[in-house]
Amino acid sequence: MSCLAERRLRRWLFRAVVAALFGLLVLPLAIVVSTAFDASSVVTFPPTALSTRWIGELFRSPTWLRSLLNSLVVASGTTLVSMVVGTTAALALQGYDGRFRTVVVGLAVLPLLVPGVIIGVTLLTFFSRFGLQQSYAALVLAHSLWATPLTFSVMQSAFARFDWRLHEAALDLGASRVKAFRTVVVPELRAGLAVAALVGFIVSLQEFVMALFLSGPDTRTVPVEAWNSLRQSLDPLVSVVSTILLAAVVLLVVSAGALVGLDRFAAET
Amino acid sequence: MSGLELDGVAVAYGDTTAVKDLSLSVESGELFCLLGPSGSGKSTVLRAIAGFETPDRGRVTIGADTVTGAPPYDRDCSMVFQDWALFPQQTVLENVAFGPKMDGVDRETREARAREMLELVEMTGHESDRPAELSGGQKQRVALARSLAVDPELLLLDEPLSNLDRKLRETMQLELKRIHDRVGTTMVYVTHDQDEAFTLADRMAVMDEGRLVQVGVPERVYDDPADRFVESFLGTTNFVAATVERAGDCPRLSTPMGPSFEAPIDGDGLASGDDVTVSLRPERLAVSAGSAPAAVDGGVSARPGGSGRVAATGAVVETIHRGSDVRVRLSVGDAELFVEQSAAAAVRLSPGDDVTVEFAPSDATYFDAAGGRCR
Amino acid sequence: MSLSDARSTLGVPSLSARWRTVALLLPLAALNTGVFLVPMAYLLRLSFTARTPQGAFVEGSLSLDGYRYVAETPLVHDIFGFTLLFGVLVTALAVVVSVLYAYAAWRAAGGWRALLLGGAVLSLFTTIVVKLFAVVLVFSPRGVLNDALTELGVIASPLLLIDNLAGAVIAQLYIVVPYGVLAVYAVLSTLDDRQVEAALDLGADRPRVFREVVLPHARPGIAVAGIISFTWSVGAYPAPLLLGSGSEQTTAILVSQLLLTDFDWPAAAAVAVVTVAVVLTTLVVGLRRFASGGELLG
């Protein structure tokens, strides 16, 4: 039955290719993590001996600590801005179909399609007219350009899934619009909101290209610091920092998965 | 040669068994219905035949080929899905020509075949339409044409009409019968609608909880049910709880209706005091106005063998008009019965009227406490 | 029928509803205008200023210096040429990989699907820098891959996979593939299983089902994946910079260099404007070809 054998072979070949792709996707990251725990100061794989000395080193380095703080500040700011903008926009579009919606969505998504370097460079020149270059504000605004389409998308799905008749029932029973929104809609949407916020946070945390142009020695974020370090040599501290960033992402993926199911999350972003 | 044969097929999902040890034989050219409530496993059987489920045990034979374990595309059967599953990006013609295309038939030939099929289902003129532009009934026809285009040995239909409204469903049922007569393919049709099964089936099987309960010609299954489940699933009936008064051959049963009578069953295994369910189909009950029909007194005018008629007195509780007929609910003794009257009947009953209900014990069917049939 | 249904079927929202929508859209409008549209307009304006050796540009001037630079410098042409080629190459590979991976994830059951998607999402949200770092670790001549292959005896001398075109392409793939995977998967997840079954039933084996039913359905997702890959590869910066050699220069690298090293603002702006123009044109053409843009954006 060569037909059956052929089918089997095809199936296993397919699986092998996919496994290889998965490995290629994930293993390099795992390798980075392992180098963070390598005792030697030369970055190699497999690690020679396990040690946590580099983690200690990181937390003793003022530049790195500074960059961690900067990243957190900027990410929090971005989350705030992108959540406000994304949620209001998603709310505004509820019940609209067709051309109006397409146009608004298009406008919201447009910044994503312009290369990061160009936005970075543009904002650098633009903000420098106002003396805003290298400030937190510049970074937060730039990051929000990229985070907003994502928070918008997540909130859009959340709103679409929500049964608006509940809202109408509340209005019917005497609640004001704002009150109805707060007491009926928000609790239902908590999961969606949480995911959107997480997404906004992580996008900012890991954004590199615009930050490269818009940050200065005081406001440098972690990716920029890592890049500078990387251009000189392979530094184990970069591994540690990478591990921290990866841990943050894993946290996001796991919590998003728990909140809305990975399937939906993947489909929405 | 039979069109389809299932031999001891069992299908399990995890730790639930959807189909238990099912054996079935369908004649070539037959229109066979699988009838059962939701969850009875009938769709699973169909999917096992089609190849979407692999049985844990048993064998499936289509025509002369044993196909158990073969993938769906290697089987000589074709399925019409409940929601039609037409390919939205293809035109009607492309949809119908899909099967032959998979067989490697050249474009000209397969399009000709597709047109032939569309003519059969009376959908000529819609070749360039897309599925989204069609109504439910039209999609139904296209799905049928698509499945027939591959000239299958066996056609499987998974409740294809359940998404249509009643009038359309009835029209399509007759259409299906017409097409079946024209084409002569063996068909296995799954439904939960008993009327549909009766309209279509040459033979039918009733399924319950993964088992085949009874197989036969629809009239036989209706008149001679295997157990209480079949009796209650087909049509409507009055179930009256009776108790054995006197055991033995032709046991005497007492009922809450009032009178006791002898049931024409052999009474094996029935002891005095046992519960028996008596099923009285409304069409077997004769109702007359007034509390005393001529020639019968309140008990049984019994003749040997229990062939006499039983009469009981009662009153009308409610009449429900349903257009062409009227359902009349009666209170007879301590029991509640109903009958159906034509809305055009000469004598119309009203709530409160006194009535007499009559039936012959041989017209009723009897079931023991476990639901099994007493003969 | 709910109020919102009524709103959309009637097509004419009430006046107060209109105002509410406008008010709710203000934040987005403010952000996009203030931080995107206006600066981009400024960039455009900058591209029309005169170049000067004494830093930046000549205030208030109007000149085609920048564009003349673009038109007349062969190096710039080469760079544009390479960038487009790079874009096409990466896009072709990214689309193939994305479709394959997304299809596998869609076919997979429960846990495996979560694993595959999880991997994609993890990669998506990982900083570019970390990914590039990882690529260096794995693909460099003394990196993990070469070590493993040499040890297994598959190759004699290490494969040169960084500091060249291969390196730049590999690195860029790591950036765009996760987006591609999710874009294709999002569309695939809307495919009705029944259609696949119908195709199987009608005689199509799995590869044919893929060709006849899955791919046509996934087209919008594939288009999105292609667009993302192309636009980001045309604007690629860190990947070719770190993992390419000097001959792998993209327009983004050029812009950065012109601006920050040469202080040649008009030229930088001109190059940037042309790049954006190319990207947007591709977008429009791509959307036209793959039918409704609304379908993609909705």
From the alpha-carbon coordinates, what is the Rg of chain B to the nearest angstrom?
A: 25 Å
CATH topology of the largest domain in chain B: Rossmann fold
Count of alpha and pi helical runs of chain B: 8
Q: What is the CATH superfamily classification of the largest domain in chain B? A: P-loop containing nucleotide triphosphate hydrolases
Summed up, the domain count of chain B is 2
Number of strands of chain B: 21
Unreliably modeled segments of chain A: none
- Write the H/E string of chain B, N to C: EEEHEEEHHHEHEHEEHHEEEEEEEEEEE
Q: Any guess at the CATH architecture of chain A?
A: Orthogonal Bundle
Question: What average pLDDT do the residues of chain B reach?
Answer: 87
Oligomer: heterotrimer
Overall CATH architecture of the largest domain in chain B: 3-Layer(aba) Sandwich
Question: What helical percentage do the residues of chain A reach?
Answer: over 70%
N-to-C CA distance of chain A: 44 Å
Determine the mean pLDDT of chain A.
82
**Low-pLDDT regions of chain B:** 293-307
CATH superfamily label of chain A: MetI-like
Structural class of chain A: mainly alpha
Shape, per Cα inertia axes of chain B: elongated
Individual helix count of chain A: 12
Describe this protein's structure.
The complex is a heterotrimer of chains A (269), B (375) and C (298). Chain A is mainly α and 269 residues long. Chain A has twelve helices and no strands. Chain A is globular, with a radius of gyration of 23 Å. With 375 residues, chain B is of the alpha+beta class. Chain B has two domains: 231 residues, P-loop containing nucleotide triphosphate hydrolases (Rossmann fold); 139 residues, Beta Barrel (OB fold (Dihydrolipoamide Acetyltransferase, E2P)). In chain B, the strands form four sheets. Chain B has a six-stranded mixed sheet with strand order 6-7-8-3-9-10, with helices on both faces. A six-stranded antiparallel sheet of chain B has the order 13-12-11-14-20-21, with no helix packed on it. In chain B, helix 2 crosses helix 3 and helix 3 packs across helix 4. The longest helix of chain B has 18 residues. Chain C has a single domain, classed as Orthogonal Bundle (MetI-like fold). Chain C is globular, with a radius of gyration of 24 Å. The C terminus of chain C is likely disordered. At the A-C interface, helix 1, helix 3, helix 4, helix 5 and helix 6 of A face helix 1, helix 2, helix 4, helix 5 and helix 6 of C.
